## 1
Amino acid sequence: MSRIATRFEALAARGRKALIPYVTAGDPEPDNTVPLMHAMVQAGADVIEMGVPFSDPMADGPVIQQACERALKHHVSLRRVLEMVRAFRQDDPDTPVVLMGYLNPVEAMGYDTLAAEAAAAGVDGLLTVDLPPEESGDLAACLQGHGVDPIFLLAPTSNEARIDAICRAASGFVYYVSLKGVTGAASLDVDGVARRVEGIRRHTGLPVGVGFGIRDAATAARVSRVADAVVVGSALVQQVAAHVDDPAAGRAAVAALLGEMRQAMDSRD
Amino acid sequence: MSTESQQTPEWSAFPDARGHFGPYGGRFVSETLMEPLLELEAAYRKYLGDADFLAELDRDLAQYVGRPSPLYLAERLSRELGGARIYLKREDLNHTGAHKVNNTIGQALLAKRMGKTRIIAETGAGQHGVATATVAARLGLECVIYMGAEDIQRQSPNVYRMRLLGAEVVPVASGSRTLKDALNEAMRDWVTHVDDTFYIIGTVAGPHPYPAMVRDFQAVIGREARAQYLEATGQLPDALVACVGGGSNAIGLFHPFLDDAGVAMYGAEAAGEGIDSGHHSAPLCAGRPGVLHGNRTYLMEDADGQITETHSVSAGLDYPGVGPEHAWLKDTGRVQYVPVTDREALEGFHRLTRTEGIIPALESSHAIAQVVKLAPTLGPDQGIIVNLSGRGDKDINTVARMEGIEL
């Protein structure tokens, strides 16, 4: 069984929901990333989502755009992100790692090369933001051939037919984008999200993660009541950005916020 | 000398149902935009076959834009170059001064039919932004234009024109602060306001259906030029020339001639300081296929797949991608894409200005520069149509600065 499936099964057995932090690899400098991954696991992360820097992050708000720019100044691209995952794996054989990024760096590397090298580095899933299922057949096949899950987004604008098609193409988990907008957008309507997640569950037995717009422990806790996983990105990257001159302090701030979210999600009230 | 050739369905069959031109094109966007794009495609298919819509479009093109634009025989330029007869398709005479308005009129009418109340657009040189702000003012629609902070500096008169027309011009300070970043930001706005907002893309790039839709609105250029040339000469031209940034004016001229096998076509890409310098905007001449802004096409990128900074004296050509249909026309050999440097374009700018009394846009000056190379290789019984896609008033500050003159 894959690390992702194993992890979700173990969480379900304990009645817990997954906390999935997102950070941009190489932000604010390459040496920060592996220690940050370990710090997030210690603070309660169940799965780690690693942003692969891209020059034109169309689906991201200003926080992650700037993180990409900081990382690209250090020439952190897909190959270096794979090296980071490989380094992380030496001390953590269990925590699933999902890469999230855009298609062009994947195209530049070549689908089969990427799939083989990602699997060898210990990557468990790949979410390509600008690759809808209609165009994803070749890449999904390469990934699955190497035991890497293709992760897909579902959106508030997805109709029933699209939800069904996406759920059939996906493995690992599906990721519901909780609002119309870019990453880091303002607020989300938890009741509306709850209805959408129920709708998605009619199409798939895969775990359903929810992300975009989750900024604090209270929202994380409320979303965790309706979804299987809570994805937090911009709020954490903001902590990295606030401490660009002192990455250790940035790691501590990320861990502190994640710890609050973990506690709020696990408390039984 | 060419004659009208047999029509084949080969070229008009593209794109396929999912927006592919061979391996290029397609729809590479985040899931949130998929349904809005499918809705747009349905509306576009419906109204392009709707007699009322087409009648309104034709009326606006005639009475508001001033179409048909003339096909002008440039006699002095032809004589000076000593080869083929050179005809200028005068898109510079359109309302707002460039071909861009052909497309913004069409998309704005579509937006109105779809019940959208807010228009957004990206712009590089500002021509598409002005053409969008113009139609938004006329239809009473809210209008927001995204423009790279760098382009706002070098095209300030157009920024003021957009503001006069009531548009909000939003500077984009991310990335290279030029057209590609403005496009990213417009996409971000669209994904946030999909319910009431119509995104008017200015070129034949972006996700399906934009490359096909913008082409169809711009193809009026080639349809008119073909009929005008036939009427003037009784024949088809031997060659067509247009500049290619995203490629909307070029595809507009080329598309109605694609099935005319005897008509050669040349797309002039911005070679900036020269292809070898690395400072250029010529993905077809020196890039490789990849995916950006919703479609697969030729791109300027590094070995890691990061999009690289481009350079051109012309803000309207300063873009690292190109429409996917051009990528396909390159691979199939139907169109030849050739590099034209900043210096050659500037010489073309002066040559047309002095020989014909027409000041071309710096974008169109790239096409003129290609004509300067091509015309002497043809005979006096042969003819070239060059798309004079825009007028050069907006560029006089840039040209003066390049020549060390302070205005």
## 2
Amino acid sequence: MSSEQLTIASLTDRVKSVAVGAPVSAVHFLGERATFVCAEEKVAIADATGEISHVVVHGGAILCTTSDGKRVVTGGDDGKLVALNAKGETSVLATDAKRRWIDNVALHSDGAVAWSAGKTAFVRSGKGEERTFDAPSTVGGLAFAPKGLRVAVAHYNGVTLWFPNMAANPEFLEWAGSHLAVTFSPDNKFLVTAMHEPALHGWRLADNRHMRMSGYPGRVRSMSWSAGGKGLATSGADSVIIWPFASKDGPMGKEPAMLAPLQARVSMVACHPKQDIMAAGYSDGTVLIVRLEDGAEILVRRNGSEPVSALTWNAKGTLLAFGTEDGDAGMLEF
Amino acid sequence: MSELSSQKIPVTVLTGYLGAGKTTLLNRILSENHGKKYAVIVNEFGEIGIDNDLIIGADEEVFEMNNGCICCTVRGDLVRIMDGLMKRKGKFDAIIVETTGLADPAPVAQTFFVDEDVQKNARLDAVVTVADAKWLSDRLKDAPEAKNQIAFADVIVLNKTDLVSKPELAEVEARIRGINPYAKLHRTERCKVALSDVLERGAFDLDRILEIEPEFLDAGDDHHHHDHDHHHAHDHHDHSHSHGGLKHYHDEEMQSLSLRSDKPLDPTKFMPWLQNLVATEGQKILRSKGVLSFTDDDDRYVFQGVHMMLEGDHQRKWKEGEPRESRVVFIGRELPEKTIREGFESCIAA
């Protein structure tokens, strides 16, 4: 993307519409193809022209999903963990013996996969070794650390850092309340959770110092690290809230940047993988591209629908895809 | 509000002490030919004899909210389950949450007040408590959970009535009424109750807080039911006295308190008083409801609450000729009756 294009106020006429036809809960790119994960049963794979093919991955609701760019892994209320590759082929990675819901899933760049059902977290390494860990309460979120085989397991009253290949006891980071989504900063220095109440909680991993990030009117459902991990963009307010993480103290004692305010709640955020720009989706269906430096906005999709519920860039940052709760979706090429 | 709330999925909370017959009632609800599909959240898999892919096992995890209020608890697992269930919207008509026999219904109810996402999609319909006619009187003495469940209920299914004599039945009903005179009570054998009596009750719908009169005990109870301001001795665990041959019990621990006024209330006094009352005594107050007439206000104001959580709204215009009477009901544990009565009196407009 050139700086010239950023002066264009609207790109809506360049969006390729994708008729997914069912509520979309996430989108990932497998190569150049966007895979829209539906709320139930299916994934819709769209090629560059917007043509789609459907693949059935679950026998019920799709509760969680993630991707490393090579495969999309989904967990369902059918107790199955399913992988989908770029060719559209599926394989069942695991089936819960008690047919419990698969609530969370995470992928490591080395091929390891982690998932959870109820209080139990599972990890299967790239070599196929499986380990389990029982959290003190239901697992709210899972994340692999960028380095080493270390898994953050979010739960009630804190996060456990679990080292599946080591005999050492897991490390417990305590903070009262229910912790849901969890994410490591790309430099491995910070850990952040989205809590059940409208707030984030963070730890600096060197000394476990706490960071409270609050003031949201609604629960934070979407978090995205900006290029190089300089900031953490979040949903949950009527503007995009970006917490600064460039310094060694992270956001401690600092105010977040607040960009792209609208008369609607930000529902999804997705930072560009390479440049200091991001995409934001709103509860009224709006999609914007926002320049982090000055908050300059470009319209990608007009308002007037159900909330944007899926938003992502491809790894090169040349394609943006979005989807909504009422089954509309689109792709934009730069 | 009611139009919006009608699109939300109704949630029935099914409680009852161990062995009272919750699973029997659940099986009835699921097997009867009503053309509706229920998502059921249970704690014990396998007890439900019905094939239904929308039976979900729960962990009954009670989480404290981070708002400094210790009675402000929610069911963390329920938040997660509701999230997942909403992906299957349209596949079911209503949700039933079965609690374990020892559970406090409050965290379940509060989940539907506190959680924004849950609130957006679902509405609490009623708390239905199944009670065992033979053993409830004993449980009320030795199991605080059983008492909680009775106090909290909007609907009480008094089950296994075939196992007790008539006087025993009257006795257990009187004990229930001593705690909660407001719930609808149904006497059943093997939980044979019309499903319309337990489902779609709208007990938490502000628009339906019309009748907060106590339910009369139908047998021989022909006297006007008066407010419970008897002076009773505190040297017994409980005591009974008789009206027209019918026993009235007063539970020493759990009771209801009804307040009323023909004169309008001053909203600038009442609202702060109510908020302060639930903030300070909210742990003791299980349920509260009210229909209010304020000074210089032609609208009825209605409110309801669970512990410290309150919701209220202007409901509608007072009708022509309708007595503009304010009525407030609290059900709770060791309610500070004198303080509450005096506080209420002080809110009556001069």
## 3
Amino acid sequence: MAQETGTARVKRGMAEMLKGGVIMDVVNAEQAKIAEDAGAVAVMALERVPADIRAQGGVARMSDPDMIEKIKAAVSIPVMAKARIGHFVEAQVLQSLGVDFIDESEVLTPADYKNHIDKWSFTVPFVCGATNLGEALRRINEGAAMIRSKGEAGTGDVSNAMQHMREINGEIRRLSSLREDELYVAAKELQAPYELVKEVAQKGKLPVVLFTAGGIATPADAALMMSMGADGVFIGSGIFKSGNPAQRAAACVRATTFWDDPKVIADASRGLGEAMVGINVADLPAPHRLAERGW
Amino acid sequence: MKVGVLALQGDVREHFSALIACGVYPTTIRRRAELDAVEALVIPGGESTTISQLAKSFDLFQPIRDRISHGMPVYGSCAGMILLADHILDAKADQESFGGLDITVRRNAFGRQVDSFESDIAFADGTPTPVRAVFIRAPWIEKIGSGIEILAEVDAHPVAVRSKSILATSFHPELTGDHRIHRYFIEEVARGALQQVQ
């Protein structure tokens, strides 16, 4: 019987399997193993975590294929990697390396300030960031199989993740309350395709999985975002920029599953050592705010 | 019938909808007391390493193992199949399963996500039409022990099997909106096994 690869169902289904889980940024095979042992559902292979990209500046690009291969060889869980916004050749390279998911990410320096990657033309699924519903639907229209609220990566400040999740889910709730003949204008205002707007209004949810990212640094942060309606959590700098990564990683995994049980979160939060130092998003000058990349 | 869906991680919601469509109202299982309250269990798709890790941390691992060995009906899809297999190949070092099915599965046997696929396959429940099967970084079965019935195969590898009270598929019927396999689990596997106990 014919076997069809890269269908929307196969790509979106992959994202469904990650639900309720934590995806962790790792920069080498050792960190990837620590993440896997702690119960991560996937790892994001990158050369520098966002906090370091932020500190060191310069142009941030796709990771070295050798480094991605080493991480793939080290763990049995899915391996994701980041491509620059609009850099479809980086994405083709990552697909040829056999990564399981590509993050078209604002954390890297954009390659195209107008267009994102046409993600339908790939077999590998993509996750893209969004700060609001219109942005999320434009990415889904381009073929994203998963959305993550952007937050502000590399800060350890959860406030933007919170704001973006409230924004996306608030707009979904608003759409659900509209009359059908009001959806045309809603689509215009959201700058998103009418068909997707209608689908969201009917179902009361995005057609793909919605994760959260950007500034999550503690088990309580992870649980907060889950209770805001996230399907799962990306933790970037928060784990390996902290005092005790193995323990913090496991604690965030537990808090993500038991997000509605403060006792479990309290237990998970004990004795974790120092969290990443962090930067207040409010202190970041506008050009250094990554969430504003992507359109 | 009281059916629980193991809700530590994975596509719990999809199994929930499929079970509701089959006329059972499921509950989520994250704690021992919740497990004790159900008669049958569904283990969803997800990451088998994550699910077994969390089951161990929250005192569910041994209780699930014991319930299965005492005949609780269970259905596992993909990660769920891995967790029901007595033997796992290409496992993470020290990875353990609940076990119960005398089979050897190979994790990610069909390849990485770029090799994931969907296909129409025959499913031996007496219905002539094929099922649409979605395979995501899916395992296959390399060896089967005695008392295991093969229900579906792809490329000569078993991808759906049952024993008396256990059903396992390496694909995800919960993603297609076709509830035939969940119905098979409830009506054929679970109801039969529970009646025997009574």
## 4
Amino acid sequence: MDTIIAAFPYLLLGMKVTLYIFFFSIIFGFLIGLLTALMRLTTIKPLNWIAKVFVDIIRGTPFIVQLFFIYFGLNGLEFISLDRTVAGILTVSINAGAYFSEIIRAGILSIDKGQTEAARSLGLTKVQTMQTIVLPQAFRTMLPTITNQSIISFKDTSLLSIIGIADIVQRGKVHASTTFKPFEVWLTVGVIYFVIIYLMSLLSSFIERRYKIK
Amino acid sequence: MTLIQVRNLKKSFGELEVLKDINVEIKEQEVVCVIGPSGSGKSTFLRCLNRLEGITGGHVLIDGKDITDPKLDINKVRENVGMVFQQFNLFPHMNVIQNIMRAPLKLRKGDKQSIEKQALELLAKVGLSDKAKASPSELSGGQKQRVAIARALAMNPKIMLFDEPTSALDPEVVGDVLSVMKQLALEGMTMIVVTHEMGFAREVGDRVIFMDGGYIVEENVPEELFGNPQETRTKSFLSKVL
């Protein structure tokens, strides 16, 4: 018990780093997802193609390979130098972005064509229709899947400890090896992850209920 | 004055030619009902009038503007052409008044208050003043369609297109929707109504167009078209539906 209490503040500092990386990654990931989803839905063929190739590559390779490629691979090039945190955020953003892309695309396609037709018949432009009619409805249907993917990405950030980011897992490793109490340390790390993920899903169900289409 | 002019309109979906050669002129304040068997192209014809369907050939002039011109801003034309759909297509994530105010708030320069005032007037006109804050899912089909009519009127269109507005409704509420449309016709709205309601076409229509196989087969004032049809196809269609 003493070990856990003593480890707690130290591990929480690591969770701060985890949350910081997650926060930026999820925002960038979402923007990448939205952009590539819209690219896949336009009639402009090269854009469709670029977005599809992007999604296929990211989904077709392991997260850890993407991370190593960006941190070690890109940094191996003379003209690029990324620090750990930037490389970490970049990897999680791109990875989440590819999965978000498919979720958002499916969400947009799930909205009845009649909605677009009604909006366009009133004189709203394509962009206005997307903004005020299609996306608000699509996001409601997507929310559970988006939450799910966000939780997966949140857990993926734990892999960033491999490139030396001082997240909660990295700190857990250090602490477990200095105290020789791996059981207590990893139990605490697990509990902290669990609590935060649980809060995230509560928040998601709250938003879902709040904006439910009656 | 001619408000709609359709010249040699053609529309194909891939290999399938749905509209073959449509020519028609519609005057201001005229109420034209379009009837015909399913697959005759009547809904496609209507949807070409605001370019909800891309036009394959020919010309459609709305209030003098050729909407087949790719340089034309179609959104400006659509502001003047309201449309009512068979499936209502209300926006489910907005309440009734928000549905009506959506387009004017986005497109018209004007303060929110006057737009809201107009929306409430439109709701009163369709007999649903008490439903302003209701969500679309709380409404019956007939009420939904009346809200959809109010929404289409909110941009003050010169023309209203109705695409089988009562086909998805329970029989007992069809009358509510038709009476709103009749009222609109009496106020001088130019209307094109694709419908299976022969009673409405006969009573409210100034002219009835019978379509079959992608052509206008026959058009006339309702008394003549229903009472004394000239073409065999018109006769055979009417004998089945009347």
